[in-house]
Amino acid sequence: MRKGSKRKASQKEDSKSPEELPKDSTKASSRGKRVKAPAAPKQKEEPEFFPEKRNLEDLWQAAFPVGTEWDQLDLLNQYKWEFSNLENAFEEGGDLYEKKVYLFGATEPQMVFFKGEGKVVCIPTVVAVVSPFPPSDKIGINSVQREAEEIVPMKKMKMDWVPYIPLENRDSQVDRLKSQIFILSCTQRRAALSHLKLERVKKFEYCLPYFYQPLKEDEFEQCTEVNIIFPAEPKPVFCEFDWELDELEEFADNLIKEEELSEDQKDAFKDFVKEKVREAKKANREAREARKKALEEMSEETKAAFESMRFYKFYPVQTPDIPDISQVKSPFINRYYGKAHKVL
């Protein structure tokens, strides 16, 4: 009877609804085996947010800062410079929209204020030249220390105009052929500078983007001044002589009075100045003749291109992260390009 009673009791328990079963029994499988309760899901880590890069964000950095000292290049990363004004210029309605543009960089050491403290800062700038063809394939090399100016092919200084490809198009080789933006690039590796002669290294620091405008008379064609470095004893005589404004005899006498020149060197000094004046006049004359010849041989299409050429100079956008540059902006580009048509 007990056995039969147990069977009935077992059947009775099996007939119970899940609600009537003990709480622990819900953890059993249909075969009566215990099943491990599922573990609580692990909390997901918050994804790190990186702001999406703008399409032309690195354009200002891609344009080589010509003439900047090598050890100053790293200082350009000292502040968060932003050139969104340059980027916006390529948007619809901007000064550079759908135009063929050649860009080069430069730096301007200026005394500026940042967080109440005055300091000398290398401010990066970018010059954009709107032109149907490269403005020049040459580089000027000049400095106060150098006796003579050099105009050399860009490639001699490992520089050239190369296409700039916006970030969204960098996987496409075809866009290199359609590019409307070109940057002045330099392939000289900084790591290799230690193997170069000091004179060669310094040449890079004295470089200036060269430009010659044949439609207007160059300032040097009409210059009437010559720099004089007369090898006198005990020290050389440094001065500037203007052949239209200065009278040579009187000029030499004043130098003697100021004890810059001795009386017995007067005649030699005058002969030296006359020779320098002859050389300067000849150079001016040859420059005028070369410009006249270039104009005669120039097509009307090329003349129109030179007439429509425009220079735009971009400074960084003012933000709280950079020094106040509002008082140091200048339209002057360099001695070859002169002034920009517009400063942004």
| Overall helicity | 25-40%
How many domains would you count in the coordinates? 2
- Compute the number of helices: 8
What's the N-to-C terminus distance? Answer: 106 Å
Overall pLDDT, averaged?
A: 76
Strand order of the largest sheet: 5-6-1-2-10-13
H/E element sequence? HHHEEEEEHEHEEEHHHEEEE
Quote the beta fraction: 15-25%
Which of globular, elongated, flat, extended, rod-shaped describes the shape? globular
Written description of the protein model:
Keywords: Coiled coil. This protein is an alpha+beta fold. It has 2 domains: 59-213 and 308-343, no CATH class; 215-297, Roll (Ubiquitin-like (UB roll)), CATH 3.10.20. The protein contains 8 helices and 13 strands. It has helices at residues 2-14, 59-62, 84-89, 174-178, 198-205, 248-257, 266-297, 300-308, and strands at residues 101-114, 117-130, 138-141, 150-153, 159-163, 181-186, 207-209, 225-230, 237-242, 310-314, 332-334, 338-339, 342-343. The protein has a 6-stranded mixed sheet. Strands 4-3-7 form a 3-stranded antiparallel sheet. Helix 6 (248-257) crosses helix 7. The longest helix is centred in the last third of the chain and has 32 residues, at 266-297. It is globular and about 120 Å long.
Keywords:
3-stranded antiparallel β-sheet, 6-stranded mixed β-sheet, alpha+beta, single chain, 2 domains, Ubiquitin-like (UB roll), 13 strands, 344 residues, 25% helix, disordered N terminus
